[in-house]
Amino acid sequence: MPITPTDKIWMDGEFVDWADATVHVLTHTMHYGSGAFEGIRAYPTADGVAIFRLRDHIKRLFASCKVFMIEIPFSEDELVDATRELVRVNRLDDGCYIRPLVYLGYGEMGLNPIPCPVNVSIAAWPWGTYLGDDGVANGVSAKISSWKRHDPNSIPTAAKGTGMYVNSSLAKVEALKAGYDEAIMLGGDGNVSECTGENLFVVRNGRLLSPPSSDSGALEGITQKTVEKIAGDLGHETNYEPLVRSDLYTADEIFLTGTAAEVVPVRAVDDRVVGTGKPGPLTQQIQQTYFATVRGELEQYRDWLDYVG
Length: 309
Ligand SMILES: Cc1ncc(COP(=O)(O)O)c(C=O)c1O
Fold this sequence. Notes:
The chain is α+β, with helices and mostly antiparallel strands.
């Protein structure tokens, strides 16, 4: 999806002009993929633009870096403040996507990352629906990928590491080339894991199910946890249970969750129509509540909003 440039990008404590936010070709992370990032969204609300679950995303960035033994040279508070300030200086009042990145910079080569300088950048730009407006409204088609999600003992799947996304890209390209919108990956254990950048929920026989991150190697999604709470408040407990691929073929409803994708119905998996082929009732209810939540329309979920002011 194309990027719309804004005025400034935050790099290592400074706001630099968008066009000047560049790095050297010998930047360590570009060669070995050892870095971590986040994807965050801000939405317009009646009280101005608000960043959704900002603190939780910054906390996950620190957790990812801890796994990779990367010491972020800023505090959590500093990155939270910098993110708010970035949205403010770029006047992104209509909402935006925000991309904090921790990367190993220029100065060292070779596989030992420990001596490398650690750099941090945060960029933000207006970004539409990740899987398309039609996908949000009517559902997307998905293909079970021939690429498996990482084994947690090969690469730490709880971390949102930059290089790990080669796996997601392979699966995404395979699905798109085959004419589908998105890929669903199985984990090393053969059970359903997640999509290339989204977690997966299934409604079967009146129960709401999602693959357990620890077994399937799925990232523990912040949107997944948001949906778990929303669904719980709507009277639907989320059951984290292993799912096999035929559970998807016989599901009544399937939807995807992610910060970029938001809440997106799945209308078919491997050419098997899901339910009626239209977004199911629980999917629609959760999707509507999610959009109302991020836009600050629901008092009980306001604590998740970080108003830019
Ligand atoms: C592989 C993967 N799974 C799931 C998600 C959804 O996570 P979240 O809801 O925290 O954005 C993402 C996006 O960050 C992701 O990259």
